[in-house]
Amino acid sequence: MKRLKNILRFDDVSGLLIYIVPSIILLMLSNIYTLLFVFYILYQLYLYKRLKALFFYALVISLFFFFLYHIYYFIYKSYVADSFIKGVIVDSDDNSFLLREGLHYIKIYYNGSNTLSIGKRVVAIGRQKEIIERNVEGAFSYFRYNLSKKIIAEYQAYSVSVDENSFSIYSIRNFLFNHIENNYQEESKMFIERLVIAKSSFTKEINDDINTLGIVHLFCISGLHISILSLIIKKTLRIFNLQEEIISIFLIMVLFIYYFICLTNPAITRAIIMSVIVEISKFKNKNLMKTDSLFIAFIISLLINPMSILQIGFYLSYLSTVVIFLSKSRNIIKLSSLIILFTVPILLYYNQRISALILLNTVIFGIFFSYIFIPFTYMTLIFPPLDIIYNILSKILIGSIKIFNEIDIPLYFSISNIYYLFIIYILLLILIKHIKNKEKYVLYIFLIVFALTSNYFTSSYRVFPEITMIDVGQGDSILIRTGFKNILIDTGVYDKYNTTIKYLKKHNINKLDYVFISHEDNDHIGDIENLKSNIKIKNIIQNQNEKEFKINSLSIIAYYKITENKNESSMVLYMKTYDATYLFTGDIESLGEDNILTKNIRNITFLKVAHHGSKTSSKEEFLKKMMPKISLISCGKNNIYNHPADEVIERLNKINSKIYRTDTDGSITITSFPFFSIIRTYRLDEISIFDRFNNLGFTIH
Question: What is the pTM assigned to this prediction?
Answer without folding.
Answer: 0.87
